[in-house]
Structures are given as C-alpha cells and as structure tokens.
C-alpha cells in the first residue's frame, strides 16, 4: 500500500511538472479534442486545457485509493489488491500517454492521434482483462450486474469469460491501427468492447438463471 501510494504520487506530480514545464511554450488556446478523422474540434484556454487532465487524474487517483476502504465487500478486494494496484498504475500511465500526445500536438508535432491511439487503448483493455480475471465479488470493480453481485458462482463464471473477451477486444483495438481509414480504427476500438459488455450482461443473467434452476431441482 505504501509503495503504491508513492508511485501514484510520483506519477501525479509528473503530470503537473510536465504541464508547468511546457506552459510557456504553448499558444494561448490549445487543442484538446479530436474527431474520428483526427481533426481538432475542440480548444480550451491554455491554463484550463493544460491542467484539466492532471486535476482529473488527481480526483480519479483519490477515488482509486479510497475504494478498497469503503467497499462493503472490501475483504474481497484485499484478495486481488495486487492486480487492483497494478491496474491503477497502468490507467494513470495511459492518461499520461494521452496528456503527452495532446501537448506534443500543440507544440507542433501534429501526428494524427487516431492513427495510433488503438495501441494504448488495446493495452488498457488487456490490463482490464488481467484485473477482472483476479477480481472477487465487490461493488466497484468488475462486471457488476444484479446477477453477478448476487452470486459468487455467477461472478466467477462471468469474469472468467469477460477476461478472455477483453483480451480479444484489446487485440481488435491494436489491429485497428493498421487501417488507413480512421473510421475503421475507431470502430475496432469501440465496437468490440460495447458488444462484449452487452453480451456479458446477458451471459450473467443466463448463468444466474441456470444456477437458480439447478438449486430448485436439488430441492
């Protein structure tokens, strides 16, 4: 826990250090959002645009830190706390990548972000797969449906399948980088994860129904 806190604090401070270092070199308004074609469609004043993301990361990091303490099933979170902490670090690193990409664009290195964003997103999906494979039933982390939260068996079955599907989604996301048409690259990032997430909701209900039927037959 102590080592994890130190790593998170260092990463958060690094966000602000990068922002303050490049602040004088950036224009009064900076690009902060891109459309599916990779064209800028959103600007913010420099101070707000440069420090908005670091502030968000601070808030998210605090939330990550308090979840293991406030979850009613926190004893279960302790069972996969190493995977949980590892994911938090990967997530912050992902946000750092996005932040550096944004700053680079505004410094004049105008590489289309859509052309390569599928790689870090895909790696993030794979990190999620590792996390949910280890996750035990809780209220904050994992595939939380009424049926997974009602049964350890349904939780385990759904997350075992979910971890595999998230790896597939990660591979699809990375594969999208090889498409020249950026629309397809975006579809390869979004479509699999949406489809798999919806499928897992129905799958959890199916497993729960079968478990309930089996218990009734045993009676």
Keywords:
two-stranded antiparallel ribbon, 7 helices, 2 domains, mainly alpha, 219 residues
Tell me what you see in this structure:
The protein has 219 residues and is mainly α. It has two domains: 1-111, no CATH class; 116-219. The protein has seven helices and two strands, in the order αββαααααα. It has helices spanning 2-22, 46-70, 74-77, 81-106, 118-134, 152-175, 182-218, and strands at residues 29-34, 40-45. The chain has a two-stranded antiparallel ribbon. Strand 1 and strand 2 (40-45) form a beta hairpin. Helix 4 (81-106) packs antiparallel against helix 5 and helix 5 runs antiparallel to helix 6. The longest helix has 37 residues, at 182-218.
Question: Short summary of the structure?
Answer:
The protein has about 220 residues and is mainly alpha-helical. The protein is about 70% helix and about 5% strand. It has a two-stranded antiparallel sheet.
Structural class determined from secondary elements = mainly alpha
Distance between the termini: 45 Å
Number of domains: 2
- β-sheet strand percentage: 5-15%
The overall pLDDT, averaged over residues, is 90
Could you name the ranges where pLDDT drops below 50 across 5 or more consecutive residues? none
Query: Roughly how much helix do the residues carry, as a percent range?
Result: over 70%
Largest sheet: 2 strands, antiparallel
Radius of gyration: 20 Å
SSE sequence, one letter per element: HEEHHHHHH
- Tally of contiguous helical segments: 7
Number of strands: 2
Q: What is the 3D shape?
A: globular
- Spatial strand order of the main sheet: 1-2
């Amino acid at each position: 826990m102590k080592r994890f806190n130190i790593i998170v604090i260092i990463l958060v401070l690094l966000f602000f250090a990068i922002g303050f270092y490049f602040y004088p070199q950036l224009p009064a308004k900076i690009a902060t959002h891109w459309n599916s074609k990779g064209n800028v469609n959103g600007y913010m004043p420099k101070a707000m645009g440069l420090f908005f993301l670091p502030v968000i990361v601070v808030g998210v990091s605090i939330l990550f830190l308090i979840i293991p303490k406030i979850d009613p099933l926190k004893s279960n979170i302790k069972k996969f706390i190493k995977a949980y902490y590892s994911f938090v670090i990967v997530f912050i690193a992902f946000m750092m990548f996005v932040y550096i990409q944004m700053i680079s664009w505004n410094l004049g290195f105008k590489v289309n972000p859509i052309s390569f964003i599928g790689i870090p997103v895909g790696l993030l999906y794979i990190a999620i797969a590792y996390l949910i494979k280890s996750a035990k039933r809780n209220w904050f982390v994992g595939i939380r449906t009424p049926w997974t939260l009602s049964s350890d068996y349904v939780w385990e079955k759904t997350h075992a399948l979910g971890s595999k599907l998230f790896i597939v989604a990660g591979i699809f996301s990375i594969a999208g980088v090889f498409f020249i048409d950026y629309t397809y690259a975006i579809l390869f990032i979004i479509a699999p994860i949406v489809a798999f997430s919806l499928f897992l909701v129905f799958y959890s209900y199916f497993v729960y129904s079968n478990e309930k039927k089996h218990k009734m037959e045993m009676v």
